[in-house]
Design a protein that fits this description.
28% helix; alpha/beta; Rossmann fold; three-stranded parallel sheet; globular; three-stranded antiparallel sheet
């Protein structure tokens, strides 16, 4: 499952250049999507298409995109829920400057969702309307990798280590036991 963000852009471009595997053997999913057209500059799918697949998505590849552009976001969420496997092999997440992961933002109702796998949300960062995976998807993933680049993200992770149960204000606490991939700036702020 792919994540959005600037760190992911660099990673996906690296994967495009290095071509470490056959894309036809992987099924790609998304952890969240902004409710915009897939061509929009804020679309996670659009970013993946430009960085990982700039020459086009290879034939017979499975890129399972969230239909964020649908006006009925509830239907879009349910459609995506039906596509998800019982468990993901690899879940990539980036931490936001406010501690969000996917589109699970601080104090958002989706943090407490335990039945649905994908829900529509309205968040504090534009675009406001989004679709996001929920805790059951995160918990069932076999491997979770969290990206944090820069001092700002390092400060967030330092707070997580001080308050590991503060999921309401720091949703990234949900993945405290994941594999953290940090640069030296982020790492330098951890005790």
């Amino acid at each position: 499952m792919l994540t959005g963000g600037n760190t992911a852009k660099k990673l996906y471009h690296h994967w495009f250049v290095s071509q470490p595997w056959d894309h036809r053997k992987i099924r790609y999913y998304f952890g969240d999507e902004r409710c915009v057209l897939p061509e929009h500059q804020e679309s996670n799918f659009g970013m993946v298409r430009k960085t990982l697949f700039p020459e086009g998505i290879p034939d017979n590849s499975k890129v399972m995109r969230m239909e964020g552009e649908l006006s009925d976001r509830e239907t879009a969420a349910k459609n995506y829920e039906r596509m998800l496997p019982n468990s993901l092999d690899i879940l990539l997440l980036s931490v936001g400057p406010d501690g969000h992961i996917a589109s699970l933002f601080p104090y958002n109702h989706a943090l407490n969702e335990e039945t649905r796998l994908v829900v529509p949300v309205e968040v504090t960062k534009t675009p406001l309307k989004r679709l996001t995976i929920t805790s059951p998807v995160i918990r069932s993933a076999k491997s979770v990798f969290l990206f944090a680049i820069g001092e700002e993200k390092g400060r967030i992770l330092a707070k997580v280590l001080d308050k590991p149960d503060d999921i309401a204000s720091l949703p990234v606490c949900k993945v405290i036991c994941s594999t953290w991939l940090l640069d030296s700036d982020a790492y330098s702020l951890l005790k």
